[in-house]
Amino acid sequence: MLATNRQNLLQSREQPCNIMAFHGSIRPTVCGNLFPSSEVGHKYFCVNTTTTGSTSTGLSATPNPSAPNAPTGTPRHPTSLGGSTGGGAAVPQPHSSPASEVPSPAEMEPDRPIGYGAFGVVWSVTDPRDGRKVALKKMPNVFQNLVSCKRVFRELRMLCFFKHDNVLSALDILQPPQIDCFEEIYVITELMQSDLHKVIVSPQPLTTDHIKVFLYQILRGLKYLHSAGILHRDIKPGNLLVNSNCLLKICDFGLARVEEPDPSRHMTQEVVTQYYRAPEVLMGSRHYDSAIDIWSVGCIFAELLGRRILFQAQSPIQQLDLITDLLGTPPLSAMASACEGARAHILRGPHKPPSLSVLYMLSDGATHEAVHLLCRMLVFDPAKRISGSDALSHPYLDEGRLRYHTCMCQCCYSVPSGRVYTRDFEPPADRPFSHSYEDSMLSVWQGKELIHRFITEHQQGKRVPLCINPQSAAFKTFIRSTAWHSSKVSRKEER
Ligand SMILES: [Zn+2]
C-alpha cells in the first residue's frame, strides 16, 4: 500500500497539472501528514460527505442519535452532563485519510480554482510532499504600491499568527524567488470543503443543531480575533468555510486590521459586503470597533434561520432603510458618530416603530431564545450591541458548545472513563496581534525586503520547501488569475 502510494506521488509529481514542486533538487525525505492523524476518526457527528472541494458539503440532516441532548436548563459546562464520549457515528472523512493509503479520487483531482476572496485567488492543489489536497492562495499585485504592500504583509502575518481551530491559518508559504524576481506570494492553508453561503443556498436541510454549532464556532473564532485586537471587517457566509463534519473556520483577512483605540483616527468605510454591513458604517461613521463584526454575525444568524439574506438591498441607503424598517427609527444617541447626511436621511423619513416580532417568522427554529440572542446582535447602537464573549454566554449556544466539545474540537479528548474537557472552551489569543512593523515600512522596495525576509525566516527548520512549478499547465492559468475587485479597492486608503 505504502509503495503504491509513493509511486502515485512520484507520478503525480511528474504530471504537468501539478502547480507546486519541490524547491530546487531537494527530494522529499520527510513525507509527514499535512493533517494530523488525530483529525481522522470517531469525533464527527455529521457525516455523509461528498468529494473534497465540491460545492456541496454533504451536510447530514440526521443528528447523531448517540450524542447527548442537552435538556432545558442544561448547565453551561458540558462536563456536568456526565462527560459522555459522544461522537457516535465514526466515519473518517475522505479528505483526511492517512498518508499511508492511496489518495482517494478526490485527492487525485487536478489543480483548479475554488474561490476569489477580497484580495487574491484560491486554488485547490496537491501538496507533492504527501499527495494531500490543500488550498493555495495567490496574493497578487503585492508590490503595486505601499498600501497594498502593507495590506498583504498584514494578512500574511495574521495568517501565520493565528492558532485557533475556528480561524483559518497558514500551513506553509511557498519559497519566494530571488528578491529581484519576487512579485507574488503564495500561501498554503487547509482545504475546506465548502462555505456557509453554499450551504445556505443548497437544498440541504439545516437543523437547529447545525445552526447552533455553526453560530457557536463563528463566535468562538471571533472572540479569539477580537481578543487579539483584530477586526475582520468582512464577515459573511462566503468567508465562513465549513467541512462536512460541520467544523467551521473564519477566512479571508484581506480587509482585516487591528483595532484603532484613538477615536479621532479615521477608518475606511470601504469595508464589509453591503448586506452584512453594520448601520454605523452605512451611516458614515469614521471610527468603529469590533461591534461591526457582531452585526454581521447577527445577519448571518438570521440568514441561517430563514435561509435567505436578512437585509438584501440594492444600495447602501436602501440597506439602511431595511434595517430601520426592522429595528425602528433609532434615537439620536444611537447616531452619535453618523455623518450629517445620513442622520438627516433618517430624520427626514417617517418615524418607524420597531417590528422585531417578524423575526419569529424566520423559521420554526426562531424560538424565543434564538430571537432574544438575535436581537442582542442586531442592535443599532454599536455601544449597546452584545460582544462576542457575552454572546457566547447566551443560553442559546449551550448546546452548540456541548456538541462542539463533545465530538468536534481539538481541545478536549476522550479516555475510557469519559470525556476530558478543556479548561477554557473559548480561549482568547495569548497576545495581541502586533502591527508596529507597518509604521517602519516606508517604501515598496523596503516592504519587499521585509516580506522576503519574513517568509524566509518563517520557513527555517520547517518542512521541505515548495515552490511554484512553472512548467505546469495549471500554473499558466493560475498566474493570470487576479481577484476581480482587487485593483478597485487596493488603491484606496486602508485605514
Ligand atoms: Zn474542546
Automatic annotation (TrEMBL):
<dbReference type="InterPro" id="IPR000719">
    <property type="entry name" value="Prot_kinase_dom"/>
</dbReference>
<keyword id="KW-0723">Serine/threonine-protein kinase</keyword>
<keyword id="KW-0539">Nucleus</keyword>
<feature type="binding site">
    <location>
        <position position="137"/>
    </location>
    <ligand>
        <name>ATP</name>
    </ligand>
</feature>
<keyword id="KW-0067">ATP-binding</keyword>
<dbReference type="GO" id="GO:0046872">
    <property type="term" value="F:metal ion binding"/>
</dbReference>
<keyword id="KW-0547">Nucleotide-binding</keyword>
<dbReference type="InterPro" id="IPR011009">
    <property type="entry name" value="Kinase-like_dom_sf"/>
</dbReference>
<keyword id="KW-0479">Metal-binding</keyword>
<dbReference type="GO" id="GO:0004707">
    <property type="term" value="F:MAP kinase activity"/>
</dbReference>
<feature type="domain" description="Protein kinase">
    <location>
        <begin position="108"/>
        <end position="397"/>
    </location>
</feature>
<keyword id="KW-0460">Magnesium</keyword>
<dbReference type="GO" id="GO:0016055">
    <property type="term" value="P:Wnt signaling pathway"/>
</dbReference>
<feature type="compositionally biased region" description="Low complexity">
    <location>
        <begin position="96"/>
        <end position="107"/>
    </location>
</feature>
<dbReference type="GO" id="GO:0005524">
    <property type="term" value="F:ATP binding"/>
</dbReference>
<comment type="similarity">
    <text>Belongs to the protein kinase superfamily. Ser/Thr protein kinase family. MAP kinase subfamily.</text>
</comment>
<protein>
    <recommendedName>
        <fullName>Mitogen-activated protein kinase</fullName>
        <ecNumber>2.7.11.24</ecNumber>
    </recommendedName>
</protein>
<dbReference type="GO" id="GO:0009966">
    <property type="term" value="P:regulation of signal transduction"/>
</dbReference>
<keyword id="KW-0597">Phosphoprotein</keyword>
<keyword id="KW-0418">Kinase</keyword>
<dbReference type="GO" id="GO:0005737">
    <property type="term" value="C:cytoplasm"/>
</dbReference>
<dbReference type="InterPro" id="IPR017441">
    <property type="entry name" value="Protein_kinase_ATP_BS"/>
</dbReference>
<feature type="compositionally biased region" description="Low complexity">
    <location>
        <begin position="52"/>
        <end position="82"/>
    </location>
</feature>
<feature type="region of interest" description="Disordered">
    <location>
        <begin position="52"/>
        <end position="108"/>
    </location>
</feature>
<keyword id="KW-0963">Cytoplasm</keyword>
<keyword id="KW-0805">Transcription regulation</keyword>
<dbReference type="InterPro" id="IPR003527">
    <property type="entry name" value="MAP_kinase_CS"/>
</dbReference>
<dbReference type="GO" id="GO:0005634">
    <property type="term" value="C:nucleus"/>
</dbReference>
<keyword id="KW-0879">Wnt signaling pathway</keyword>
<keyword id="KW-0804">Transcription</keyword>
<dbReference type="InterPro" id="IPR050117">
    <property type="entry name" value="MAPK"/>
</dbReference>
<keyword id="KW-0808">Transferase</keyword>
<dbReference type="InterPro" id="IPR008271">
    <property type="entry name" value="Ser/Thr_kinase_AS"/>
</dbReference>
<dbReference type="Pfam" id="PF00069">
    <property type="entry name" value="Pkinase"/>
</dbReference>
<comment type="similarity">
    <text>Belongs to the protein kinase superfamily. CMGC Ser/Thr protein kinase family. MAP kinase subfamily.</text>
</comment>
